[in-house]
Amino acid sequence: MTEGNRSIVLAHDYFTQRGGAERVALVLAEYFSVNRIVTSVANQQTTFQEISRFVVEQSFLSKWQIFKKDPRRALLLLPFAWSFLKPVDADIVICSSAGWAHGVPTTSRAKKLVYCHNPPRWLYQRDEYLIGHGIAAKSILTIIFPILRIWDRRSAKSADIYIANSTSVADRIKKVYGIDAHIIFPPVSISTEGERRPVPNLGRFFLSVGRPRGYKGANLLEEAFARMPDLTLAIVGSGESPPRKEGNIVRLGKVSEAELRWLYEHATALVSVSKEDFGLTPIEANAFGTPALVIRKGGFLDSTLEGISGAFIEGSGADAIIKAVRNFPVSWDKEVIRAHAKKFSPERFFKQICEVMSELSNKTT
Question: What is the dihedral of CA 298, 302, 305, 306, to 10 degrees?
Fold first, then answer.
């Protein structure tokens, strides 16, 4: 289908987790009623269930369960997985990419639009990506880095139009690819109208939402809150393990959408020191009238309006977090916060995407 009788296909790196990039990819697929989704590997058990609404084509990596659990284990194989896919024949291929999907092969008539969540972190922000990894992983990446970078830059140049999800990502795209990207902030896609399911025994709590990656900063948050035993930190992340409490840290693991809505609505604040490219979780919390407390870096500079939708943490150490939490205002105007979140509505997002697609069409005439 779709956009004015043009056929559209969506490509996304992989669907094995429930992250912000996956949310954005699925709302793009839904809005444009795409013919199909192309990805390296998908796991319906660990990603958003909305993936089941689409015809999904996967690479040869889908034959191995180990890669369905963690595609990062296929780092050496991912360029081949994408390069060996059958060329996609469509009028427009929308690539939701943080490093791989922009390499999807296409037929000569297809126009490639890349919505970039970030140039690959393992190539251009390796120190951040490798936090928590051992010497072996760092050594291997150093050896294969030149080959991966050649493939990645060639893939980037195959795009007809590049879109960045934040100002900081646009700057990185310009630096590593020499491409001037449009900037379109991602939309809030979690519905504020859906079911709420209470999470018991939390009391007053701060909320952290994110996968357990070193650059997400979860360990630093835990260190800081462990020094504030009068406050509770609830952590939502991946994993199937049951909720467990360690002092004032409550690890909730994977929660349902209904539970996540309740958590967003009842948290004192969404707190994050993650080095995010954009970071949807503060905006998602804002949509429920909850303020954010985030590090003054990266995509948070685009998503957080100081004193209106949240506050900033000045510095990345535990002491800076403690100071910011202790000084966090008690009173916030929830309606003003919700109004801020509406600036990141799906309606605005798709209006801007369609404007860029019109520009792409004009290039073909």
Answer: 20
